[in-house]
Amino acid sequence: MAEEMQQQQDMYEGKVKATIKEATADQVGCRASKHIWGEVGCIRYCASKQLSPVNGESIGWARERLTSIDHASRKLSHVVMDNNIGWRHYEARWEVVDEEEVGGCRIEWSFRMEPNEEWGEKPLGPLVASTLEKIARAINEVFHARDDGGQGRSAVDERQ
């Protein structure tokens, strides 16, 4: 898992990467766009104990809207519309690329958001990296189960 993080012009920006050894970029891109996201405009709700709510609630949550999807190039982007964790102007881009040297593929998750008082200097990168690791593990399990003759299961967003 690789991680980059920097603060530029009052925005936190970063990029994390995870390798999927059990599937090609086309397989992962197709599955993610159909089973995790859906179509442009779709809204999904994510909740996690890892997220620190700023309003005293016990679980942090966010509502995300898919803003673009390009099936051919396996890219998508989304924004956080509403949340209780203090994020402002969060936007992210995903890209799934072939990993020719080691086989399989790689998910690259780029993100940026406006820093705020609630988060202070707390970096976003480790949280995003942890979430991507869980997603990558779930995707590997799905495709590994299929290779073993199993029924497989849907790769779901595991933001906990």
Keywords:
160 residues, alpha+beta, disordered N terminus, disordered C terminus, seven-stranded antiparallel sheet, single chain
Walkthrough of the structure:
This protein is α+β, with helices and mostly antiparallel strands and 160 residues long. Helices cover 22% and strands 40% of the residues. The chain is built from two helices and seven strands. It has helices at residues 25-37, 125-147, and strands at residues 2-8, 11-20, 43-48, 60-70, 75-83, 88-98, 105-114. Strands 1-2-7-6-5-4-3 form a seven-stranded antiparallel β-sheet. The two termini are 19 Å apart.
Helix content: 10-25%
Biggest sheet statistics: 7 strands, antiparallel
- Mean pLDDT, rounded to whole units? 80
Q: What is the strand content?
A: 35-45%
Distance between the termini: 19 Å
Biggest β-sheet: strands ordered side by side in the sheet: 1-2-7-6-5-4-3
Task: Count up the helices.
Answer: 2
Per DSSP E runs of 2 or more residues, the count of β-strands stands at 7
Order of helices and strands: EEHEEEEEH
Assign the structural class, choosing from mainly alpha, mainly beta, alpha/beta, alpha+beta, or little secondary structure.
alpha+beta
Enumerate the spans where pLDDT stays under 50 for 5 or more consecutive residues: 1-8, 148-160
Q: What is the alpha-carbon Rg in Å?
A: 16 Å
What is the molecular shape?
globular
